[in-house]
Specification:
The chain is built from 15 helices and seven strands.
């Protein structure tokens, strides 16, 4: 861990099952390898995609991001040819692996074609998939063709165990980045984003790039990437054109991320930086959810982000 100049989410990505932070029930199911098709589901940043690559590394594999490559043509033009090809290992056909990341973003046609392919190549290929929202995948897919495994803690015992493991991993990375911390600061830092380890890695890298030498409530209230957006939300909407310029210039290319952090990170920022206005948080979250939903139906999503910020300013300053 001596070098911290690489992208932290990649530098510290687990390479073996032993390095995964996951409940024991999950590890016990994974240790047998590709015995059956697996669907890992749960919160973002919990290690699902890392697990898929670990499971596939000793096999010929094909990676598909089903939220981007989501149509039936992907099954026809990519998955079927891969499954039908022959991969030999010492004269024997080697089991192939198809990684379907973010499977909950696929289309109905994709799912329908996938069912047929999984049945046809059941002897020669295994499908390993991930998703955040199991309920977005048709039940005949996840219930009868995969073994679904939750990566979120299912009881308090698992949550306590995972939180402890997160603190060990995050503490080691903070030390590598030469950022000091107290036990209290570390606990709060981890709990703010638990169980999203990816968000924690991004925040540590942001602190490192900013030259932070200590973990404090102020510098962990948000990552620097969205600090300007959050500060803007706290200000009255007295200079709307200045707001417009800032949002367009700094966040116009990151609309999805911006709307997401307004719902996920901004509440903690509000708690730390403007606790007197915490009573407005329910209204802020309701508005944020409404604009996140509307984004999918508008011609220009930038307008949705602009409207969301202006509305949050009105709520917090009235």
């Amino acid at each position: 861990m001596s070098s911290v100049n690489e992208l932290f989410t990649e530098k510290f990505r687990p390479q073996k099952l032993e390095q995964l932070i996951a409940p024991e029930r999950v590890k016990s199911q994974l240790k047998h390898g590709l015995v059956q098709n697996l669907l890992l589901f749960g919160s973002a940043g919990t290690g699902k995609t890392s697990t898929l690559f670990i499971l596939a590394k000793d096999h010929p594999y094909l990676y598909i991001n089903a939220s981007d490559q989501r149509g039936i043509d992907i099954i026809r033009d990519n998955v079927v040819p891969f499954c039908s090809s022959i991969s030999l290992d010492e004269g024997k056909e080697k089991l192939k692996c198809i990684i379907l990341d973010e499977l909950d973003g696929a289309t109905a046609e994709f799912y329908k074609a996938l069912r047929a392919v999984m049945e046809k190549y059941a002897k020669s290929a295994r499908f390993v998939a991930s998703c955040n929202f199991l309920n977005k995948i048709p039940e005949p897919i996840w219930e009868s063709r995969f073994l679904p495994i939750s990566y979120d803690p299912i009881n308090d015992t698992e949550k306590v165990y995972l939180t402890g493991e997160y603190k060990k991993r995050v503490g080691a990375i903070l030390q590598a980045a030469k950022i000091s911390f107290t036990e209290e600061a570390l606990t709060k830092f981890v709990e703010n984003d638990f169980p999203d380890m990816r968000a924690l890695m991004n925040k540590i890298q942001s602190l490192h790039l900013r030259g932070a030498v200590e973990l404090t409530a102020e510098n962990t209230a948000t990552s620097s990437d969205f600090g300007d957006l959050f500060r803007l939300c706290l200000q009255p909407a007295t200079k709307p054109y200045d707001n417009y310029k800032l949002i367009v210039n700094q966040f116009g290319s990151r609309i999805d991320e911006s709307l997401t952090v307004l719902g996920s990170e901004f509440p903690e920022y509000l708690k730390n930086m403007a606790p007197a206005r915490l009573d407005k948080l329910p209204a802020v979250l309701i508005v944020t959810a409404e604009y996140q939903y509307q984004k999918s139906f508008v011609i220009d999503p930038l307008i949705t982000l602009l409207a969301a910020v202006f509305r949050i300013q009105q709520i917090l300053n009235t």
